[in-house]
Amino acid sequence: MNRGKRHTQGVSGRKGQSGFTLIELTLVLAVIGLIIGAMAIGKDVQRNAEFTKVKNKFVDQWEQAYNQYYQRTGVVVGDSQTAPRIMVNGVAFGDIAASVAAGGPALSGGDMTAAALPPRVCDKAVGAGMAARGTEVRTLRTQMTQVGVRMPPGRAEGFEDRYVYLDSNGNPQELQVCFQWNQPSSADGSGNVMILSGLTPELARMLDQMVDGKPDSREGRFRQQGVDNATANAPGIQWNRTNNDSMTALDTRLDEDQVTTVVAIYKMNQ
User: Fold this and answer.
1) CB neighbour class for 94 (10 Å; exposed up to 12, middle 13-18, buried from 19)
2) Alpha helices per DSSP H over 118-235
3) Residue 13 domain-assigned?
4) By the 8 A CB rule, do 148 and 69 touch?
5) Looking at per-residue confidence, does 78 or 21 come out higher?
6) What is the domain extent for residue 156?
7) How many domains is the chain built from?
8) DSSP β-bridge partners for residue 191
9) Is residue 28 one of the residues assigned to a domain?
10) Which long-range contacts (CB under 8 A, 24 or more apart) does 139-144 make?
């Protein structure tokens, strides 16, 4: 009897030392999967929140600053208040007679499609990737402060035209804003526009979605620099760069690479 009792206790002891059951392992793996999924979703949510902040705190506020300048002066940025030319930096053309003589636009009814392009208005050196346009007028901050327009905080005092954010690899990217006038039928969209350089492809698509309701690189108020929209009723096209493109090559991105950037054109209402 004693041996039987000891034998029963031994079996019980071995059962107490058994490992996890299949159900328990399945539950543990499911919990780990949920945690990993939540972390991945959290990163996406954080990046989307950052992109929304870029639009609300920088892009939208620069559009408001541009509109406030127009409301206070009656002209757009850089234009003449006494002889307005309805274009960014239109003062560069002087009076109409001198403008026509210099090859500029005849704003009294002439064809503006052949008009000479006035220099764009920036604050400092132009952003990477902006299409060349001769000399730039680097007086954006001065013009805004002269009429009492409050600019977005940007990076810091004196760098209101810049904004820094992180790309999908965690590398810093610098967004920069300038203003310019484009000829009618321009591939970049006609009229007065805001130029945004330093946009990662995913940020450009998200801003395009917010502004136009769809990420289309060649039509709407928000489009990609240099993408022509000359074909009537043609379907839209995607932004031609992705987060797999690094600064140096296409489709060769490593985890530590800085994601490539694009330049966008944002048409102003004035």
Assistant:
1) middle
2) 140-146, 201-212
3) no
4) no
5) 78
6) 46-267
7) 1
8) 182
9) no
10) 139/78, 140/77, 140/178, 140/179, 143/69, 143/77, 143/78, 144/65, 144/69, 144/77
